[in-house]
Design brief:
Chain lengths: 443, 443, 443, 443
């Protein structure tokens, strides 16, 4: 590669480059800057920094020190120096546009870029480990397919550089999808204001390899909370009664949260995903930090659930004599694909003989719903599609992987939609039957 | 100061130097090497490395990486390069001896050197912060008076350099007192084999400032455990039922441990002092690490308590479908001062008009009991004395402090004992009434 | 009323008689004997005792003493002495048949008869209390509409006494529907062997008053468990450490059971509905008894859930040093209405201009599924229909009630179906359009 | 026996009569009335009803219905009809006095009469079962030796009928010792106002058989609480989210209470001794009732502990959306024997060659402290003595028993003290050496 611009390269190579350099939410400095550089080199209009994301609308931004060390690591490991400065401090969104040769509506495609704070498997049964493209950065891993999403988007960008399509294509490369922390902030920066058709593609989802679920419904809303319990430290042997045991209160709260009742007829979830308290066995811990979340497939249920969890935390804190500080660090709203989007995706799939499939389990949350609700609210169409990518460990597990042979399928599908043009109600006309088959995509 | 040798200097200055550079157990590279250098400069025979501590008998040794970075920090911040090499890897004990001009038994004095993993208060009400000698190293603090213990020992060492005393004085400078991880390993290296009288002095303990409790009894035995619960990671929304939630199991175990019944007539304690699990709200955590301890003032009760805690951890792990690994990372035995030691200390206190006082609360554990049981088992005498050091935050809390004006009291008391000579049963004669008042000690 | 035979009487009067005399599962001596007597008086063939229910296939039969005192109470309060003897010991099922004048399949209608161990509201806002027909027997209440089900069935029986219908009608009056304890035992006695069409009607279910949900799907399977934790009693002050605290272990288990994860895409439930332990504050309780249940809308999920709960109970018992005995006291399988049954019910509803409605929440479990699976397995049709009965407190709450004006609707609907004849596949022909409107039913 | 008067009879026979008819606190109608009758027959002045106990100062009085049925049972099983009427409603205290022939102070002896709500062992290894004098009344048992205390008191009363002693002897026969519910109410009725020396004897206490601990110190204060959690009932499958789960909140509270830290240097206890909630597995329970207690050997610690438990209960109730009602149903204060009482008891023991022994475990609470504090406050002397009674199951366990051969030892010891006369400071003179040995006592 002759510089940070990453193309031309097979889509799988792009994915592996991102896979080896996983960056968590708002720390995607290397990933986002290289994507921005690549798109700029391809002739796309590229917005970064506050033009792409509203800084104060972000949720759950990591501490300054963590942002800074991630930025420096990116600078030292191939980040694109043209774009890194504007991203400093966690402004890691990219909005790239390309106007086609013909008039038409704006078609926006979302790709997320963040990885997870998870240690990747080093087992020889895990292909990235066996083939040596597993995470270079301990404790961080692309375990949800975002590396593949971005590789598809950039490959598509290269193919569309001929501008042989109606309307405008917009790539929404979002940071911090995990936790629902970046989407609304991009919406707040106006990234979805002019969009007539919005689509987000997600790999995996338990679908058969290469099959497409054209319209995912029931994406759950969620609230991510950070709860800090404050107690009183004391020597555990000499004066345990003088302490107020933050760890113990947090433990009781964790059990209480998980014992919340389900809501019949709805998918609901609670999870205490992290609990950190104390340093030494002989000190009564005076602080416990908890990361937790609630989810529901309905906005009202979601609100009730969050309110109930907050009440539980408050009561338990009080019962153990602890202070409590609860911060909302991520939030997404529930949403569903609409019929217009479904028809467009299903049509494209059929045109390419891509098999359709339904989800066997209800979907989780996705920050894409911030864009979906905005676009649908503006009278546009919005959809969320799944693309099966093989059977590996579950999403968010150390052995998650994707079958790279499906990446070109994703490229083809989206390319078809763009070239065909999209015509959701109220957002301009989409010529029926438009869009000749593009040349084949290499895996 | 013309080098790492730290004397002559007022005892409070020594204490402040250690206070600013707190090092946790087996990482006392700066502290121990500077102490060794000072003693060597004063003409004492100094043993370090495996001669002072049996490497494999240590418990709860930090990971290699942590040891190494502490070692490097010590090398860069005034550690004594003559002794640092032998200490590398956590061999941070010092055994220093000086033979008096007259025959007599071996009198050993224990001083511990380790700090705690605790963030020191920055409040202006906290004197070290107000006067600018608070910890330079975030997250680490001398919050148990060990800085004062070592300052007393070194000041005493300087005063005894005249060798005007009977028998031999031995300073046992121990690492990793917190957690009971270093004492037994020094005993295993033979450090207490020849000792006729052993004394350990501890500052604070809730005693009135400047008052001495000449014979602490009922020092609790304890067991420090590290428990690791292993679960199965999963996406918290898409497949929570596929996960096995290590955090939740650990939370249930924490509550169960704290709900253990007391044993009537005994002081018993349990504490889960740390619990760390998970990284993200949307992942079912597959690992939870817990630091916990049990204590009792009786060896049999202590064993039962530890066994019961282990059974509880195992049952809870099984109930949540988790694996469990429990490691003993620290252990001390209960012990009490004997009458011989009590008489010697009380006599010295009376000779200096130091008021006597009793503890108002039973004592905690101290790794000094490893030495005490060894010496008492050999027919020698062993005692543990408290010296009141003012009213500050409790031991192991961020506002713990000591009134430095009592440090010279400690020096005088121990000096009197050494110069008087000690005559425990079966370990040689101690001349009664020996020991003229030494010149006064500067604070 | 001139004897135990209860008819003719308005359907609401029948319901009120049952409402005032609520009897829990297998204790329905008064209820069942009066129903049997009424049916016999009407000329139906009546089976009771082992001919109606297989004694050893019953689950969760109350203790002998409880059965006996319920039997005696029934004998003293209007039970039908012709049938009481055969029911002694909890054989409280009734199978009543009437052959029509024309050939045709067997149409079976299930009505359940048991009440709940719940104290009925005495509030003036609660109509039964206001009008003086609330439960005469403290701690027991018809809070699920079974009183109405039976009143409908008996009213229907009277109307069908003209035998002007094809085939045979069979009333399956089942005991112990709550808990899923009686249905399978009636199936084991052969009660459903010859059935071509099976229908169970349930009042309430959150439906609009008077509206019918013609085909309930996703009835949950469940397992009801009784768990007994055995500990060691001890004086709570003198020797708490000698005790093994059954109450505490059961409390931990209750939290653990409720913290089980949901299974995405399925309705699942767990509930610890009762916990009883201890008698005095100063004794460590040596016994704790728990009633709990698991539910799922899928047989495999149901099995996994039950297995997981059992493992949790076992682990927690072990962690607290307790013995554990778990008994299955009730079990039902999941089932759904089939298309044939749906068509029959929906057709009848339309014929009577009864509005159709869908459930807004997924259904719970019903022991009717034991019959449904048997009939469907034999090639017959089986359905479960809901009939809205007004808005009162929720099912199983002290203020549950039914709007009696819908009872005649239920009678009319079922009468239409019977008179029309039912023709599920493989079970004989049902003449289309059969069944003239019967005379109106009084409320 | 020719009537309710029970004497003359061997002391063991008396004990067995009481053992077979155990009555819980404030229900001691048979026991107290027979004791009163016996004392009256012997010529003692007997006070019962409001003269012996202040009705409104009683704590934890059982419900009217329970009192009534116990009263009727007593009337039907040998209760003394002369005294039963005055005791109706739970006024089951007896104060009996006998003036000696010589002047002297008032010596009061306390005997408690209540049994425990515990099922007695039916094992052949349990002597009462083997010999057929085990409890006739299921679920109730003399498991703390009160049957023996009363047998000793009545035997002593018979022997003292000769009035050959100085001063006045007063028997304080108290109800509801368990739970600390009756003593303060007798004090409130003035029962201890004139007492110069108060003694309470307790059998068992882990002492060697026949040995006396002359002065028990550190009797713990306690608070007995009844906590009622109120939730919202709901169908556990159809609307669990509409419920508020009282059982679950109570379970969390039970764990939290038991996880309270100990107070170093003090004996402290907490116990949740009973938890009752729910009736059926398929209902979210709307009520949970808990009996719990706190104890400490110091009044201030006791108060803090109770306050902390109350705060915990309130917080947990709030966290689960529950109402909470906490009632104090029993309370005793801590107390210790004084030196005067100790000297008197030890002297008497030595005079009879009864071996002395110390407790090996700290004592629990005893309602006798209400009398002790009153008498000590008035300038009199008060003591609590233990008398070893063999090795059986622990107090409050189903196999607790006493070796009846020690009962005459108790009689002799107390008789000696009475006949010798007691001379505590400020309460009149006790003639030294008084009191010839009485004739031997039959077991």
């Amino acid at each position: 590669m002759a510089g940070p611009g990453m193309l031309p390269a097979p889509v799988a190579d792009l994915r592996r480059d991102f896979h080896r350099h996983p960056e968590v939410g708002f720390c995607e400095f290397r990933t986002a800057s290289r994507a921005a550089g690549t798109l700029a080199d391809l002739g796309w209009d590229v917005l970064v920094g506050p033009d792409a994301i509203a800084p104060s609308a972000r949720l759950g931004v990591p501490p300054e020190q963590e942002l800074e060390s991630a930025w420096e690591r990116a600078a030292a490991s191939g980040g694109d120096r043209r774009f890194l400065p504007a991203m400093r401090g966690g402004l890691t969104a990219v909005v790239a546009s390309l106007r086609g040769r013909r008039p038409g509506p704006v078609v926006a495609l979302r790709a997320d870029m963040d990885a997870l704070p998870l240690q990747e498997s080093r087992s020889a049964e895990h292909l990235p480990a066996r083939q040596g493209f597993d995470s270079l950065w301990p404790g961080t891993m692309h375990a949800c397919g975002h590396d593949g999403h971005l590789a598809i988007a950039l490959t598509l960008a290269a193919r569309l550089a001929d501008r042989d399509f109606p309307g405008t294509v917009k790539l929404l490369l979002q940071p911090a999808e995990e936790g629902g922390r970046g989407g609304a902030a991009m919406v707040a920066a106006g990234a979805a204001d002019d969009v007539g058709l919005f689509l987000a593609l997600h790999l995996g989802m338990g679908l058969p390899g290469g099959a497409v679920c054209p319209a995912v419904s029931g994406l759950m809303g969620n609230a991510k909370l950070k709860a800090v319990f404050g107690g009183v430290a004391a020597h555990a042997a000499m004066s345990p009664d003088a302490g107020r045991h933050a760890l113990l209160g947090a433990a009781a709260a964790a059990l209480g949260v998980h014992a919340m009742p389900p809501v019949p007829g709805h998918e609901t979830r609670v999870n205490v995903g992290a609990l950190h308290s104390g340093t030494s066995s002989n000190i009564v811990p005076d602080r416990a930090e908890m990361l937790l979340e609630t989810r529901a497939d309905d906005a009202a249920v979601s609100e009730q659930l969050e309110a109930r969890v907050r009440a539980l935390l408050a009561g338990v804190a009080s019962s153990y004599g602890l202070s409590l500080d609860v911060e909302l660090i991520g939030a997404v709203m529930p949403a569903s694909s609409d019929k217009t989007a479904e028809a467009i995706v299903a049509g494209a799939a059929r045109a390419h003989h891509i098999p359709l499939a339904a989800l066997t389990r209800p979907p989780a949350s996705d920050d894409a719903t911030a864009f979906m609700r905005k676009v649908q609210g503006n009278g546009g169409a919005a959809g969320y599609l799944g693309l099966g990518a093989g059977n590996y460990g579950p999403h968010h597990s150390p052995t998650f992987d994707i079958d790279e042979s499906v990446l070109p399928v994703g490229v083809r599908l989206l390319e078809h939609i763009v070239r065909a043009g999209a015509a959701p109600a109220g957002a301009g006309a989409m010529p029926p039957g438009a869009g000749a088959m593009p040349p084949s995509v290499s895996a």
